[in-house]
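Support case: user asked for a sample of complex input and structure output to validate their parser. Sending the pair below.
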Amino acid sequence: MSYIPVIGLETHLQLKTVSKIFCGCSTTFGAPPNSQVCPVCLGFPGTLPVLNRQALTFGIRVALALGCGIQPRIVFHRKNYFYPDLPKDFQISQYDLPLGTDGFVEIGKRRIRIGRAHLEEDAGKLLHSAGYSLVDFNRTGVALLEIVTEPDLTSPEEAHLYLKTLRGILEYLEVSDCDMEKGSLRCDTNISLRPAGSAADSLGTKVEIKNLNSFKAVARSLAYEIQRQAQVLDEGGKIQQETRLWDDAAGRTEPMRSKEYAHDYRYFPEPDLVPFAVSPEEVEKVRGNLPELPPQRARRLIEQYGLSEMDARTLTASKGTADYFESCMKAAPASAKTLANWIAGELSSQTNARNLESVAGLPFPPGHLVELVGLIESGKISGKMAKEIFAEALSSGQSPGSIVYSKGLSQVTDPSVLQTAAQEVLKEHPQAAADYRTGKGQALMFLVGQLMRRTQGAASPAISQEILRKLLNDKEKRG
Amino acid sequence: MAISTKEVEYLALLARIQLTPQELERFAGQMDEILAYVEKLKTARTEGVSPTSHVLELSNVFREDKVEPSLPTEKVLANAPDREGPFFKVPQIIDPAG
Ligand SMILES: [Zn+2]
């Protein structure tokens, strides 16, 4: 039977406030264990949390950029559960009055609805050992924004594209490092299958997947889970409502020991925090400070540089990439189309191969690309050579111009171009050609010199000599 | 409404406390009484009154995003039942029902 996957994503974004959401502890990453904690984030009796104004502003900024409405009154709740990463035995989060609701992210022509975006505090970090666990509370209380989609995604590829698009938007907002490796961007998914042809709202049993450490893991785990669930259903089985953990090395999801997460959160209003009123004026002020976001920037790039819509979308998907393109355009008026092709092609595939976030992370600054494209456009090097030079520049860090110079590389090392030039040289100097054939070796050196002169020194002597000799010998055989 | 011993057992699991069968019985009865008492609130007229999440007429109490000194790690760990170096040490997280 064929099924349609119904996928929803929850993304946790660490906001880059310098202090935690409810206390003054620093949020610096990588500090010694338990050195950035205080009575408030440790949940000592008698302490009071106070909301970090910047965290709220960052939250509003993201919610607005995602097209959410901002609730005029927001309230924090306690989400109760026992786990050693939570010193208070509850997490301050939001429940029925979240910061933002009803937004969307556009991927291609589809709108993925954002159900809610809410503020909460992060939990601590556990290091598991044999028989015991070690706890570091430095991360406890760091400001998080949770962004929850409606179950609008229908394939692993779409989930991947949504995450990339979302991260693109978040990068533009400059409210987070968006670094999955440091955990400042984290993602859980939920997925169910419904039989093809069934009503769109006939939802199957949902499975939650956790432990996803990269966008790739998100896509792979969903692909695995689609297959697993389809098999269970095809065999007449039932899908268990459960949380499963992705095992990246094994490439499969495993059920979590269910009781470990026997949560019944018993949300209730956090009595230690007052409610917050967000005035329309404040919302408009934050809206006024929103940067140019990917869709607007794409439109501008189309108008300003004559890019195709496709190129503009590709370039603006990541802020780093769009910035890279515009630095190139500012450095030299190269052809926007050629630059875009290079960025979307060679540079992006190297970026992906190296697992970097954007082309800006490559050891190939915009100036180098401008140089390379300049060499192509002036006809000095062929497109094929450009690719080789690019590979060389990436590994050596040298600029394309200096690679061309130091290796004597240029278009005229291309044998077919040299061949024509060599034939012309022979035609112009029949005497030297004849001398060579009668055994005068230096005549060849004279002809090489002529060929190099004709190509303005760009032809490499070795290749020139080889081509001339071949031409002369061929003629000899035929004549 | 009657609270069953099963519900008390579930609450005990959530709260990570262990109760004897006698305690389950006793607490079920006590909780019944408490709930019956609180039931009285339902007779209050609350039309047009928004739910209270805080007892004081206060809102928008903020702090600025400024780093304040944290506790020295030694103080942080002073009351820890167990530690290893700068870490709190806790028993392996095991299936509480298993
Ligand atoms: Zn603190």
